[in-house]
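Ticket #4471: complex job returned nothing on first submit. Input attached below:
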Amino acid sequence: MGVFVARRLVEAVVVLFGVSFLSFALLFLSGDPTYLMIPENYTRQQIAEFRHQMGFDRPWYAQYEDFLAHAVRGDFGVSLRSQLPALPLVIERMPATMELAVTAMALSLAVSLPLGVAAATHHRSPLDTASMVGGLLGQSTPGFWLGLLLILVFGVELRWLPVSGRGGLTHLILPSVTLAMYSMGRNARVVRASMLDALGHDFVRTARAKGVPQVSVLYRHALRNALLPIVTLIGIDFGVLLGGAIITETVFAWPGVGRLVVNAIYEKDFPIVEAAVIVIAAVFVLLNLCVDLAYGYLDPRVRYG
Amino acid sequence: MSARFRRSPGAVVGVCLLLVIAVMAAGASWLAPESPTAIHVQDRLLPPLSVQEGMRHWLGTDALGRDVLSRFLVGARISLFVGLSAVAIGGSLGTGIGLVSGYYGGWLDRVMMRLGDVQLAFPFILLALAVMAVLGPGLANIIGVLGVTSWITYARVVRSEVLSVREREFVQAARALGAATPRILAVHAFPNVIGTVVVVATFSVAGTILSEAGLSFLGLGVGAGTPTWGQMLADARDYLTNAWWLTTFPGAGILVTVLGVNLIGDWLRDYLDPRLR
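Support reply: We reran it on our side without changes. The output follows.
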């Protein structure tokens, strides 16, 4: 177990190293930021001096080395717009994004687990068909369109819910429903397939023969064995949710990292983009590490080798 | 195949939905009442079915007086084109890498898979967004980005299939008979993974269409000059409250297309590769 954790940690560091290189390469290729940073009336002489002073005239590997040396200390430079350090600007937006993503995840599981189980236990019933059609629809709906429709119905027509910004619980409803829809649909389908598989095993028949109550058969015997693919999905889902949050946040003017990064891209504010990409990737890598570790707890048959 | 097809209502519905979209996309030039970019400022924001200057705007007009139906049809064409060509690029790239990587193993395999891990550490849309920010909007750019970044999905699936195929007797026999590696890969390994690839590719078309729409919605897709469904939705945001048709139709177009592809994907998976779920 210790060896496994150590190896996965090393792997995570290697991956993050790659992420840092990839995001550096992207921004290096996007061109010299000099012209975004200087006043228009600079002479050629002044421009050359400025580039030298900022180090933009050095070869890429020297700039990457410099970037990495600063990055490991949490220094991603200052935002070209606000002149504030980039990393704190990103970290400060993180709680809003996590709030949205975690709520969406909870919502998705709260709906898809019971729905998938019910569909599996009532295999080939109208309930099964209806929930699978619903799941497929959820999986096929573009999130931002759903968001716009929800705004139109619940915000503009009915005036029940606020449609933009972050605030109390009511502000959270529309964005999290929008964000959760895709994974809700997919998870319901996976839970159903996984449960159908588990219900076909002998231990379920044995439990039933022993007279174990139906609820216990479903949730203690079958669902526990069906959980593994679902836990894998949760790890992947979180990436999908973080990515989806970028668009959802734009639709609902939610002050999270996604909106920050989209605006930074529009404004060519590269230090912010760089810091945001690396922070999001780091969260994602750590989360998948936790998922891997959770396997052993949920299913002792998984060996950490 | 056809009997099983008819017994699956989902597949029939999926094919019908896609046929409608495909006919619209293929016939966009003939079906469109007028040019999708023709501007009539005096006819702006007309609701669906309005008649103006002897022309019926079946789906209304947008904020610049452009005919929504014409734009919708061209949008269908672009959606399908981007989805299919990006998948063709990603599918062939990923399948090739997966075949070679799985068959040879060793350092090549390790490097490719580690590279894939790095790529998968990004939420996909963030990676696409960052690359599009660097390259700038454009049809070729979005196809390239969505295509190239999807290689790892295919590579992983194909690689794991090849790992097991490699050890099977018929491959060992072919090798013992002196078949060259390219031949073993093409004649023995490839036919064994093609079913899986087709299933992954089908679902990938759906995902790619959604990604393109999302990126275009953010203004980092095909580009402002071209009418795409995502772009139309981005434009519609400002008129959400007074022109429901601008929001409804492009979104419904995406939904119908993606749903059709997913339904066909479901059926193909059951038919070609029951192990994938």
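Chain B has a mean pLDDT of 87. Closing as resolved unless it happens again.
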